[in-house]
Amino acid sequence: MLTLFYLATESAEGGFGLSSDILGSNLINLIIVIGLLVVYGGKFVGNLLTERRNKIAQEIEEAEQQAADAAKALAEGQKNLNEAQERAKKIVSDAQTTAGKVREEILAQGQKDIERMKATAVQELDSERAKVVNELKRTIAVLALEKAEQQLKETLTDEVQGKIISRAVEQLGG
Hints:
single chain; two-stranded antiparallel sheet; membrane; hydrogen ion transport; CF(0)
């Protein structure tokens, strides 16, 4: 089986044969294989390495481009965030200002409503007081008339009535 790996070498008789020197034939085999690899495989391996180097360079360029795009997108996003924060601050400020104005308007309207209610209450009280005073006057007048009528019934006799009628007739011109 080892004889299959021996390299055919030229024998002393001028012919080809198998060499029994394992070390020498292995060295020759290695030299031939390396030579064939250098001659025929050099271009192939060189092409593979060149393609691999080009592919790596292209991937590096793509990664750098993606990094640049990401940095650009990040800067734009940061700019948009800053603008949004500024708009949010302005909206909050405007809302606070509007809320203050609305609060003042509500307080002013409330004060006006209170004043109006007070005025209405005073008018209603005055109206009720006037009604009560008129009712009291009427009641007093009725009571006074009843009292006078009662006193007249008690003190007015036929004789006193005759004197009053005579005096009234005299005053009228009689």
